[in-house]
Amino acid sequence: MSDTVLKTHNSNTTHVDLNSRNCTATVQWFCELDKAKHPITQDNQLDIYMCGQQSFAEIAKDIAAAKETLDLICWGFDPGMELERKDNSAWPRGWVFGSMLTEAAGRDVKVRLLVWYDRLPSYIQNNLVGYTGDQRKGYLIDSPSTSAEDAMAVGLQPPLPVLGNDPRSPEQLRQGFCVQWWREALHGKIKNLEVKFRKGNPDAILKSLKNPASPEDMPSTVAPSHGGLINEYDLIVKNGTHHQKTVLIDYAREGGAKAVGYVMGLNSTSDYWDTAEHLFDTPLRETDWVLKSDTAKALGATHRISRDPLHDYVSRIRGAALQDVHNNFLTAWVRAKGQPHPGESTALPPSLPKVAGGSRIQIVRTQPEEGDKTIKNAYFQASGLARNYLYIENQYFFYERWVRHLKEKRAEFTKWSCAAGVKPRDAKLLHLFVVMPSPEDDGMVPRTYDMVKSLGEGQSMTGIDPRKPDGQKSVIEAAQEKYNNDVVAWNKMTPQQQMEEPGMTPVKGWLLQTSERVQEPVKNPKTGEIKALGLKVLIGRLITHNKGRPLPKQVSNYRQIYIHSKLMIIDDSFITLGSANMNLRSMAGDSEINMVTDDAAKAAELRRRVWGQHSGGFGECHGDDGGITAIANAFEDWQELMRKNDDSVTAHGSITGFLIPFHDTRAITFRHG
Hints:
This protein is of the alpha+beta class. The protein has helices at 51-64, 97-106, 119-125, 148-153, 170-186, 202-209, 232-238, 294-299, 322-335, 374-384, 400-419, 445-454, 471-492, 495-500, 510-517, 584-589, 600-615, 628-650, and strands at residues 40-50, 69-74, 110-116, 193-198, 246-249, 260-264, 310-311, 313-318, 359-367, 372-373, 389-394, 397-398, 430-435, 529-530, 535-545, 558-560, 562-563, 566-570, 574-578, 582-583, 592-597, 659-661. Among the domains are: 32-318, Endonuclease Chain A (Endonuclease, Chain A); 471-516. The protein is built from 18 helices and 22 strands. Helix 10 runs parallel beside helix 11 (400-419). GO terms for molecular function: phospholipase D activity. InterPro entries: PLD-like_dom (IPR025202), PLipase_D/transphosphatidylase (IPR001736), PLipase_D_fam (IPR015679).
């Protein structure tokens, strides 16, 4: 058995009726072997929201109704973030997150905020706006050009008063508010509000990576960037983050009867707020002050534009699944030296809501300190059961070990089908839909290439003109050519010369070693099907089109919609979403939390809603009833729509929906994982 196959299935015996020769069996979507630590719960109320506008509005409503407790786990927190934005005026355009927590604490709600903080990485990420840096300029607290606002953050200066005719700009007022909020929150000046920081545990991460029961491809210690100072191993092991995002409100109030919680992909910082329309530019999104997006870079500092549109999801839960959300928080809070509430318990509250016919939900995690890799278990187990379609929407799509597992499970299914007398041409096809953004960091390109190559889509990261070497494939080919030439030169040397010149010994570079491990499957040139696997793959990304604002000629009228999602839907039968990306860091290194459900109605509705939004209603892209024919038609229509939109971009025309083919021609020789 391959080491990619995890032992996640619970053995089961199903009896066959001897007369009819029929039996009824159920698919095991949940991690049943992990249910002792992560219970499979019944009768939950589950709602799934798309994008920040809707998601944060619901969170704001529930926080405003809180009476007793409010527990938040965040990767980052921006006190000045407006959760609801009702007009296009300057900051504040609505009630801000910091004030919302302060106000809740003021009405005797016990507020606990647990956030990731690690001095240098947090300053680089600026994940705690007002504490780790300036929202507008992006500089660091301890940089040589320390600002007055940053000096306030570390207590070197008192906060400036907010006067009726304050001469500061809205951005300066915003930063001043954030700085002062952190000063008060961290120094116990806000009654009933506690903040705890936590950072990654390198020893626990390394142990997780080396766990023989759940093997991993170890991060690379070579091919570093920044003059040899940064490599993949150090980034993942020594700079791990806590990436979970949950909100839990009134968990024990009235025995749990009023409890409500969220398992999120969205971060609680302002740049993650967007509408589902994903407009090219809108004052409701934050201004791209630091010129992070390609559009802002092209426009320059004199022409302001909002940050890239951003897409993600949030799940709202009421019911017994909240026990695991609470226990995850409490364990982490105590590990960060926080104190439980008096009488706080890990036991199931007696009156948590029950919805007849509601969703079955299991909470799964990555938690290196506890040796928990149930998110990986869920991804591997569920994807191996996919028979009609598998939809993945993920910020980081570079975990090639998962592709190897998927291909192995498809090979097993194909072999089983043949043994049952099904001809290969009649075997059921699996359609894999992938939506992801362009890798945000150059160092993520090599592992992304490994992933798409392993799926037979390596051409998506090569140049358009085959006569001109371009893209990541050209890097691999150049490394192979160099090695071949080195071997030829070495073989021409005499044994004496070889002994005198050991430095001439041919050595395969790290990129070439990886390339040899990643096997690109053979595809049928007519059908696009991966032979012997019954697998068809498409990989797309999302863009939006400028429909109004005149732009200079050098600026594109298209910009990416940044996919921050961590979503997988399978066969209208399974959903997982939460904080975990499809990469090694999320599966083994950082703390993560996802929810899993086998609610068929929720899965079908979400699939239609997401595919309909991405496709702009084109053809049968929504997948209709989710049957075999409907999914096959949807796959073809996705391909057609992506081609049409790609042609429209080339012709500077309008597009339908947001879908275009994924393509990246960068050629990178270092890894950041």
